[in-house]
Amino acid sequence: MIPELSSLSVCMRDPQRVEEIIKAMQKAGTSTIQVISDFDMTLTRFAYNGKRCPPSHNILNNSRLISEECKAQLKDLLNTYYPIEIDSKWTVEEKLPLMVDWWTKAHTGAAAHQERPAAGSLPAVFSNYMDFDETGLKSRHNVLLVGDSLGDLTMADGVHSIEDILKIGFLNDKVEERKTSYLNAYDIVLVKDETMEVPNALLLHLTSTK
Ligand SMILES: Nc1ccn([C@@H]2O[C@H](COP(=O)(O)O)[C@@H](O)[C@H]2O)c(=O)n1
């Protein structure tokens, strides 16, 4: 087992199964692996030195191009919807339309209230943009999936003929309340881990030639 997996912040429902998946992926080789990762609070930190880090949407909250009125609205939306996002009593299916409501209200509000900068152009945000090269990802049947919510577990749903998939989940908030559901859903659960150390070490391990 790789040393990083013995850290106290790493929890696994079935460590033996994790080891089997890692060995199978390593045997299959680098060219078969693709990484599918969430962004906010996964590739970016949830907290640093115990202080909460902002998600991408907070770029708007901190922008001079957004009016104070709109910032207050965005804060209200966060206070309304974030508790739902992390509430273990709601299913992913129940939460999804509410999360869409959140983004829609935040985006509509920000677009309506933004103040045009002196240069005249407004900032544009792109997300979920895929750029494939000529080889595509067709031959990569092994997936390293990294996320921070139970909704992220569907990120690999469109991948054809998956051989092995290793799911790594950051459990950032409401740890005790959500630990069981995360352990049931993710192969590796990283509890209040402020780094990408484990996913990075795993990737290095999987792509190293022995
Ligand atoms: N208007 C919004 C919408 C979402 N958020 C937060 O951003 C995070 C996005 O995370 P992903 O896992 O979807 O990358 C999410 O955790 C929300 O808490 C926000 O702050 N404002």
UniProtKB/TrEMBL annotation:
It is found in: Cytoplasm. Belongs to the pyrimidine 5'-nucleotidase family. This is 5'-nucleotidase. PANTHER family: 5'-NUCLEOTIDASE, 7-METHYLGUANOSINE PHOSPHATE-SPECIFIC 5'-NUCLEOTIDASE. Keywords: Cytoplasm, Hydrolase, Magnesium, Metal-binding, Nucleotide metabolism, Nucleotide-binding. The keyword Nucleotide-binding applies. Monomer.
